[in-house]
Amino acid sequence: MTSETPNTSPSPEQIRRAPKALLHDHLDGGLRPGTIIELARESGYDGLPDAAAEGADRLDAWFRSAADSGSLERYLETFAHTCAVMQTREALIRVAAECAEDLAADGVVYAEVRFAPEQHLEKGLSLEEVVEAVNEGFREGERRARADGNRIRVGSLLTAMRHAARALEIAELANRYRDLGVVGFDIAGAEAGFPPTRHLDAFEFLKRENNHFTIHAGEGFGLPSIWQALQWCGADRLGHGVRIIDDIQVADDHSGEVTLGRLASYVRDKRIPLELCPSSNLQTGAAASYAEHPIGLLRKLHFRATVNTDNRLMSGTSMSNEFEHLVKTFRYTLDDMQWFTVNAMKSAFIPFDERLAMINEVIKPGYAELKAEWLFQASPSERR
Ligand SMILES: [Zn+2]
């Protein structure tokens, strides 16, 4: 007696309903285009591109093409607009609430969303007020999601900008708001010329406080950046880390034998989480196509790989969209999706018992239910 459970690729609808965990998402990279237009009007910000006058869809397209353009100036301009309309308590609450709502509607059950408090001070808010407003927004979004029949839990990551000199101050802020909605710390911004070692005092402070942090490293820049983030700064996770592929050799012959260098071995041995963001990497040139994205090999080699969105607005993406691309490209099944999701949940910055409960009570049952759906489908002959 054998039963053959179908091990086929999930449909887009199943991908959306599957529970997902997200570790790398920027608050200022995920606004709804319609919200940008409304907030700009309310706050008197007149710097939006002309496309905004033609409506939310046109503005949406503008963001994507600016991010796709390959020009760093145009890419950075997109964030100047989103940050410009996120300068008041009300605006931050709204953006954070909608972020939680949108993620929940996409089937995300756990998310760590990051933002740089120092970028929201133009209209007089204090760093503390920024953090409190965003956290209030996330709580509001979680409530609205519940009312819609969705479940999500959102934690904040406080980001310091690599080119600025406020990392220690932001790290102290993250520590103060620990247990009050903030789950960790991050460093972001251009890698070249701004090594994470510039901010050692911040990392050393967090380590002394037994706190958690991730570092944007190994996106545009190669192995030295990953090495510094891990071995000098002590990062718990790597924001992207995709260039770890440079330390992995695949033989050209038929054997396809794989050899890991010391750093790649260390990353795999120590189960260092990689916050991979496929669509974002394509836009910044870190990979040429989904098929060539290192995630395929890293998954095969059992790195602690996770799937993330980075900037949903600029990349026109969502967690479901990222998985749809991966399912199509690598023929991933629900088991693969579950593997990435459990990886992310294991790597989250909330306490171990809560991560475990999320895996055992939410994620695994969610996938089990999806995997059993074929049992209840009418056979083709019974369908009309
Ligand atoms: Zn990022």
From TrEMBL:
EC number(s) stated in the UniProt entry for this protein: 3.5.4.4
Catalytic activity from the UniProt record: adenosine + H2O + H(+) = inosine + NH4(+); 2'-deoxyadenosine + H2O + H(+) = 2'-deoxyinosine + NH4(+)
Keywords of the record: Hydrolase, Metal-binding, Nucleotide metabolism, Zinc
Domain Adenosine deaminase: 19-364
Superkingdom of the organism of origin: Bacteria
Note on how the cofactor is bound: Binds 1 zinc ion per subunit.
Pfam families, alphabetized: A_deaminase (PF00962)
Site, Important for catalytic activity: residue positions: H240
MF terms in GO: hydrolase activity
Catalytic residue positions: E219 (proton donor)
Binding site for substrate: H26, D28, G189
Entry binding sites for Zn(2+): H24, H26, H216, D310
Cofactor: Zn(2+)
Role description: Catalyzes the hydrolytic deamination of adenosine and 2-deoxyadenosine.
Record-stated family: Belongs to the metallo-dependent hydrolases superfamily. Adenosine and AMP deaminases family. Adenosine deaminase subfamily.
Protein name: Adenosine deaminase
Organism: Streptomyces gossypii
Upper classification of the organism: Bacteria, Bacillati, Actinomycetota, Actinomycetes, Kitasatosporales
